[in-house]
Amino acid sequence: MSSLLEVLTHMIWPVSCPVCGAVAEILCEPCLRSMLTPQPTRCIWCGEYAPCKACKKYGNGALIRAASVYEGHMKDVILALKYGGYEAIGPRLGKAMSNVFSRSDIDVLVPVPLHIKSKRRYNQAESIAKGLGEIWDVEARSAARWTVDVPARAGLGAAERLSLRSDAFAFDENISGLRVGFVDDVCTTGSTLAALAQAARSHGAEVVCAFVAAHVPPIR
Q1: 3-state secondary structure labels for all residues of the chain
Q2: Spacing of C-alpha 145 from chain mean position
Q3: Residue 21: C-alpha distances to residues 1, 78, 149, 154 (Å)
Q4: Could you give the dihedral angle defined by the CA atoms of residues 183, 188, 192 and 193, in that order, rounded to the nearest 10 degrees?
Q5: Rounded to two decimals, what is the model's pTM?
Q6: Residue ranges per domain, the chain?
Q7: For the packed helices 124-136 and 89-97, what is the interaxial angle rounded to 10 degrees?
Q8: CATH architecture assigned to 37-215
Q9: Bridge partners of 181?
Q10: Residue 67 and residue 196: Cα distance in Å, rounded?
Q11: Which of 72, 112, 183, 215 is the most exposed place for a label (fewest CB within 10 A)?
């Protein structure tokens, strides 16, 4: 009987948890909670573990806060969000991240924008930011955009990632004077967040931190 019920349920709601396979669940809460473990903070300017003495020239200790490591089930979840069309995973992931991090003193959450030629119908970073912002009562605003057509970061090596310049991004004028927190799904070298942060500073914003669902730990 239970198997028949599962089949009927799946016919009505053709989704399943990418971790445990439970039908009619876009992502189980127990599965999600089990994957989130706060990671050591990283410097937003160079991507190395904080505190970073080499980057004091930027004037503050803005940090990258990651909720997990990009591996195993978390990698499966992010791939389902990013390429599998499961946009609803994003807000759930963002809401869960609100329990992992303490709320920073920020005015706005800015998701990392999609690349200029991206064929994705939604921005996975924006969907995460909306969930996080809803719990924290902070506006999620897509205030940044790419100014150059660069290859997707996922297919690049470390050297190519690190070559990204701050003028690859532009911001809305009304970002000036605001305390900004960035949001993304995955942080690898941290070069995208660094370029985004430098661009935000040049537009008059105060860069406070970045929140990412998962990261690839730097080699110590």
Answers
A1: CHHHHHHHHHHHCCCECCCCCCECCCCCHHHHHHHCCCCCCEECCCCCECCCHHHHHHCCCCEEEECCECCHHHHHHHHHHHCCCCCCHHHHHHHHHCCCCCCCCCCEEEECCCCCCCCCCCCHHHHHHHHHHHHHCCEECCCEEECCCCCCHHHCCHHHHHCCCHHHEEECHHHCCCEEEEEEEEECCCHHHHHHHHHHHHCCCEEEEEEEEEECCCCC
A2: 15
A3: 18, 15, 38, 26
A4: 40
A5: 0.85
A6: 1-35, 37-215
A7: 40
A8: 3-Layer(aba) Sandwich (3.40)
A9: 109, 209
A10: 20
A11: 72
Residue 59 has a pLDDT of 53
Residue with tokens 């499966």: 76
Let me know: does 132 contact 98? Beta carbons within 8 Å: yes
The low-confidence residues of the chain, meaning pLDDT below 70, are 1-14, 54, 56-60, 151-163, 220
For residues 205 and 174, give the distance between their C-alpha atoms in angstroms, rounded to a whole number. Answer: 9
pLDDT in tens, 24-47: 777 888 888 889 999 999 999 989
| Gap between the Cα atoms of 94 and 182, Å rounded | 12
pLDDT digits (tens, 9 = 90+) for 179-216: 999 999 999 999 999 999 999 999 999 999 999 999 99
Q: Are the beta carbons of 60 and 207 closer than 8 angstroms?
A: yes
Amino acid in position 177: G
Please list the residues that pair with 16 across neighbouring strands. 23
